[in-house]
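Need tokens for this chain, all 211 residues.
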Amino acid sequence: MSPRDRSNHRSIPAILTELRQLGAAERVTLREIVGTLGDRALALVILICALPNAVGLGMIPGVSTVFGLPQLFLAAQLAIGLEPLWLPDPLLRRSISGADLARVVDSALPHLTRVERILRPRWLALSSTVAERLLAAVMAVLALIQSLPIPFGNQPPAIAASLLAIGLIARDGVIVVLGIVAAVSAVAFLAALVLGGATAVNALTSHLFGG
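Here are the structure tokens for all 211 residues:
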């Protein structure tokens, strides 16, 4: 399936509603989530994997990695134009609780429904094949950040990745620009967070040991 085919012409809220049905299970594997999505565009699967961290579920231990690493693989595939979707088996076996998946959908659905109403193809140069591959490289960096165990550091890059993915799916350059701005802000936030943490540790060490 070509990236130009996007999401098989189904709306993002409709696809999320379909995923919501998996929430009845005790545990849901990434394989089941990908299986429900079927043979759809890589950008759509990246969006679905970014949503748990975007809605704050990344604070639960392990969740950020469960959904961050698949994004890294998928973004790399999108960057080099590799189809169809492929993920290694160890990642596909990772799982979250059905209740958490339902919470992700319930949290994200109202926002995505509102966004869906304003989406339209515009500024098409920002969703061309060349732009798509460059933006996929940005999403790979955002995915790597999401995978790191940094307190409060998972949500900003996940929101940025979600915006970029939505922009590519809908071929909406305005949303792509918002995603780029969010990506720059997320990296700046992370840098400030790490720098602030390092400064605090250094100050504490100096206080304790008189260094």
